[in-house]
Amino acid sequence: MGNREALIQGAKQCLTERGWARTTVRDIATAAGVNHAAIGYHFGSRESLLIHALVEAVEELSEAVSERARGGSPEERWQALIDTFGTHRPLWIAQLEAAVQAEHSPELRERLALAQRQGRAGLGGSVPLAVLSGLMLQWLIDPAEAPDGAQVALELHAQSTADFHARSREA
Amino acid sequence: MGNREALIQGAKQCLTERGWARTTVRDIATAAGVNHAAIGYHFGSRESLLIHALVEAVEELSEAVSERARGGSPEERWQALIDTFGTHRPLWIAQLEAAVQAEHSPELRERLALAQRQGRAGLGGSVPLAVLSGLMLQWLIDPAEAPDGAQVALELHAQSTADFHARSREA
DNA sequence: ATCCGGTCAAACCAAATGGATAAACCTGCC
DNA sequence: GGCAGGTTTATCCATTTGGTTTGACCGGAT
């Protein structure tokens, strides 16, 4: 593995362990087992490297999610997706960090917008994608209170009923 | 307004304009019209101030959301909630930043977990909360592609039908 | 063997950063 | 007036930071 690849790996590791704000060029270089001057050589700047790392992580996550988006009952599918919060935790954290940094980097925002369109296509709508990323937020903050696949499937099913009730109440 | 309050306001402003990673003590002090030594005096450290600011923002957002979570048809309610992405954009950005920083601050995570429980109660379940925060992510990254209230209500309703189809396909 | 482009690392640097210090500044009270 | 409390500011400081420079290194082509 060349230094360039090692740096991206190290950056991904630092992003999940310390987050963008707390990651220094020396942290990344140490994690990668490389001199920190290599960052300037290969990427020009710390920010550029971090964005590269985030983009790569987001793409990996996209793939992992789309693999689990099809097959089985809704409950099973939701559970499989929810399980990725644990199995792919670093990628999900990167995804979250990417969303934050996208507010300050048009390039990153563009990449995320693309991944989002793919996500909508893979999951079959804006709402399933919203549910998935929203559940991720809940799971990261308080896994004990986050719902499982059965609960999600149940609530989604109950939603149309609730809607109906709300409509009639409104009349 | 005392310096302490001014600092929290300035911190909130910096958090939305530059994000946690790019906000320095001097940025905050300038935004607040205050000497940056006041941060040490009132909060002890930059991090402590930023966390205070995030917590305050999250609480403001909680309130704004719960005000709009009731009344009207589902479509109207969803639209009212989606509208807050624009009207309360700074607070939503703070919420997102808070979720990221919660990974590195147990205190902040605790506060967010509380707000999350309130959110579930106010919106009537884990899934509505997930939908709302997931939509926020979509809207921040690509407002043009994010769905409106009608679309969300429609997809939510269609969800149970889709579930049914999936179940029968599975058999 | 030598040259050469690309890669790497040790040392260096200026600037920025978070925080500490200590002196001024109020404001209410005796 | 003058004292005492908390508050605010100007200034200082050590450290960290991102980035650059310079020379070594390496593999392949000549």
Describe the structure.
Chains A, B: This is TetR family transcriptional regulator. Chains A, B: It comes from Actinoplanes cyaneus. Chains A, B: Keywords: DNA-binding. The structure is a homodimer of 171-residue chains. Chain A has 10 helices and no strands. The longest helix of chain A is centred in the middle third of the chain and has 23 residues, at 46-68. By secondary structure, the first copy, chain A, is mainly α. In chain A, α5 crosses α7 (89-102) and α7 crosses α8. At the A-B interface, α2, α7, α8, α9 and α10 of A face α2, α7, α8, α9 and α10 of B. Chain A binds a DNA duplex (30 and 30 nucleotides) through α4.
